[in-house]
Design goal:
single chain; alpha/beta; 2-enoyl-CoA Hydratase, Chain A, domain 1; Rossmann fold; N-(1-d-carboxylethyl)-l-norvaline Dehydrogenase, domain 2; six-stranded mixed sheet; 48% helix; binds (2S,3S)-3-hydroxy-2-methylbutanoyl-COA
């Protein structure tokens, strides 16, 4: 089946694209479209319809081609053929017309879309900008502000919203081809011309609109190049003639495309999708139906985990040890949903519907027909084993029993049951209803269909799954240890907490490691170390400072002071000379001559510590791929996506020498 076909239906020429999975604009597709448009110029057609087979209209340029030498005809060449067609062309949209796909529709003369369709320009998520006229045509139809919002956010808009923004001309019902041909006939009856968007002039916009976006983006997309370039392009659309605007857009697009940031973000795009695939597991491995879920433990984590299932309509039973604890747990959930409602992301009815899906119980007998139970109590291995013994006795055969543990040995937990094949780890990240990462921890006996079910369920609840083997800390938390240890050595050698955190935050981390410690509570690490032998604890230089802080009662934000002092009202953190003195004293104790450390040295040492541990994790088979480790750190630990993850970043910096 050719990937581009052309059919004359009466006086209407229909160009159909068929390049699964998403009709990405590969070289062959570009050639095929041009040939079809050229063929149509000389036949009996009076108007053309451009549409796609499969699940979606064109979803963008073929990202896989970016790393390779460009091949003519380029996408702009193809769009020029469309736009300069002597016969009007109607784009007929279904699924998601994204990036170069939507730019293709904009180069047509009219656009119709089914109600369920979405259109968008998500290039910014790849460290790019729309490089085929999107920044010039969108403002001409929707205005500068709507264009800025759409292109800098990268978020698609519904067909209805696109209609309101003049980005589509007609939202159609029923069969798309029929509706599009009907619309084309209407246009013929009206003698509608080949209306080129480039001939429209974008309404003028106040200069401060662009300044406002520059300021907002400097915060919201801190460190990223593409967002700022997008503002420049949209500003050009309202101030320069089309060809000059296109020239600027092309120049800045090529700059973005050649940037390490875009290489990193394109890497992450494919890494996220690759992570969902389990090596050695057939794609059609059966999965178990998950229609009823129970969570053991209604604390912060348990409540957050429960929300993920309620959000997609799966009823949840929250198990606690008393009615008061249940009330407390439901209260946490209610409060979380209220925050979402206050942000306008949910309405009151939706909140009530979701709350109604979550019921509490103290009785394990209520778990008899659960399909999945996730244990989310605190990190006490004996308690976890006791719970799993009870679950083994209470749950039906075939129920999947998961632990949300961050560190404990999944095989030990599984051994507490008579069904280790049904046991695995499902490690959520706090706040569990927000963080996208879900580590799926495979025990020695975890059955293939249990793993496949968990990987699929992760996507159902909107998480990004990464498979991990069973070791202390799995992938993410295991790498956190050397990362934190290197931070401690930098402190002893001369960095201040504020400098160290600022260096990592300027690198792109959401927060520096010490501020994260203060947020989580320094007593957590302290208690975990108390359970270890001296040998297990490792080099005392790597924890002497946090131990001293905890012994001084400085637990972090929760006690008003940790590495920093916190304003009781605003929680703003302030450097504290008392901590500097403590660090200097500890350095002296270890005979360390303190010196000036550069930010670059701090970044290099901490990111290398992550990559070194990642290589060990890969070698041991705990992670399937380096790119899986990148996904863990980007989606679970705030590693900047525009750096590609610790493994990609290490390889990229090594390649740069
Ligand atoms: N190029 C190549 N492959 C793509 C692709 C693309 N644009 N989009 C998806 N795929 C593959 C993906 O790797 C996966 O492959 C399969 O399709 C299904 O994807 C000039 C320069 C369309 C919303 O950024 O957002 O145009 O793993 O698992 O969840 O201005 O894919 O099966 O082998 O994500 O249903 C702009 C990116 C490009 C859209 C579908 N476009 N894609 O989601 O399936 S840059 C985008 C998506 C551009 C121009 C610029 C999503 C989707 P495999 P999937 P999904």
């Amino acid at each position: 089946m050719s990937i581009v076909s052309y059919e004359l239906i009466d006086n209407i020429g229909v160009i159909r694209l068929n390049y699964p999975p998403v009709n990405a604009l590969s070289h062959a597709l570009r050639v095929g479209v041009i040939e079809a448009v050229q063929q149509a110029q000389d036949d009996a057609s009076e108007i053309l319809v451009l549409m796609c087979e499969g699940r979606t209209f064109i979803a963008g340029a073929d990202i896989r081609e970016f790393g390779k030498p460009a091949q003519d005809p380029s996408l702009p060449d193809m769009l020029e053929q469309l736009e300069n067609s002597g016969k009007p062309i109607v784009a007929a949209i279904h699924g998601t017309a994204l990036g170069g796909g939507f730019e293709t529709a904009l180069a047509c003369h009219y656009r119709c879309a089914v109600k369920s369709a979405k259109v968008g320009l998500p290039e910014v998520n790849l460290g790019l900008l729309p490089g085929a006229g999107g920044t010039q045509r969108t403002p001409r139809l929707a205005g500068a502000e709507a264009a800025l919002d759409m292109i800098t956010s990268g978020s698609p808009v519904s067909a209805e919203k696109a209609l309101a923004l003049n980005l589509v001309d007609r939202v159609v019902e029923g069969d798309l081809q029929e509706a599009a041909i009907g619309y084309a006939r209407e246009l013929l009856e009206q003698n509608a011309p080949a209306r080129r968007v480039r001939d429209l002039s974008a309404e003028s916009a106040e200069p401060e609109l662009f300044d406002r976006y520059r300021k907002q983006l400097a915060k919201r997309k801190r460190g990223q190049i593409a967002p700022q370039h997008i503002v420049r392009c949209v500003e050009a659309a309202v101030t320069l003639p089309m060809d000059e605007g296109l020239a600027l857009e092309r120049k800045l697009f090529l700059e973005c495309k050649a940037s390490p940031q875009s290489a990193a973000m394109r890497h992450m795009f494919f890494a996220e999708r690759e992570a969902a695939k389990v090596e050695g597991l057939a794609k059609d491995t059966p999965t178990r139906d998950i229609n009823k879920v129970a969570i053991i433990g209604g604390g912060t984590m348990g409540g957050g985990i429960a929300m993920n299932f309620a959000n997609v309509g799966i009823p949840v039973t929250l198990v606690e040890i008393s009615d008061e604890a249940i009330e407390r747990g439901l209260g946490i959930i209610d409060k979380n949903y209220s925050i979402t409602v206050s942000k306008g992301k949910l309405n009151e009815d939706q909140k009530q519907q979701r709350m109604a899906l979550i019921q509490g119980t103290t009785n394990y007998a209520d778990l008899a027909d659960m399909d999945l139970v996730i244990e989310a109590v605190f990190e006490n291995p004996d308690l976890k084993k006791e719970i799993f013994k009870k679950l083994d006795a209470s749950c039906k055969p075939g129920a999947i029993l998961a632990s949300n543990t961050s560190y404990q040995d999944i095989d030990q937990i599984a051994a507490a049951t008579s069904r280790p094949q049904d046991v695995l780890g499902m490690h959520f990240f706090s706040p569990a209803n927000v963080m996208k990462l879900l580590e799926i921890v495979r025990g020695e006996h975890s059955a293939d269909d249990v793993i496949q079910t968990a990987m699929k369920l992760a996507k159902t609840i909107g998480k990004v799954p990464v498979l991990s083997g069973n070791c202390y800390g799995f992938i993410g938390n295991r790498m956190l240890k050397p990362y934190g240890s290197e931070a401690q050595l930098c402190l002893l050698e001369g960095a201040t907490p504020a400098q160290l955190d600022a260096a990592m935050q300027n690198f792109g981390m959401a927060m520096g490691p010490l501020a994260v410690g203060d947020l989580a509570g320094l007593d957590i690490g302290y208690k975990a170390r108390e359970a270890l032998t001296e040998e297990q604890k490792g080099d005392p230089k790597t924890f002497c400072i946090p131990d001293a802080l905890v012994e001084m009662g400085r637990l972090g934000q929760k006690s008003g002071a940790g590495y920093y002092r916190y304003d009781p009202e605003t929680r703003a953190r302030q450097p504290d000379p008392e901590v500097d003195e403590l660090i200097a004293a500890k350095a002296a104790e270890f005979g360390i001559e303190r010196r000036e450390l550069s930010d670059d040295e701090i970044v290099e040492r901490l990111t290398s510590a992550l990559a070194r541990e990642g290589e060990k994790i890969l070698e041991e088979g705990i992670a399937q791929r380096r790119s899986d480790i990148d996904v863990v750190y980007a989606f679970g630990y705030g590693f900047p996506v525009y750096r590609g993850g610790p493994m990609f970043y290490a390889q990229q910096t090594a390649a740069e020498g």
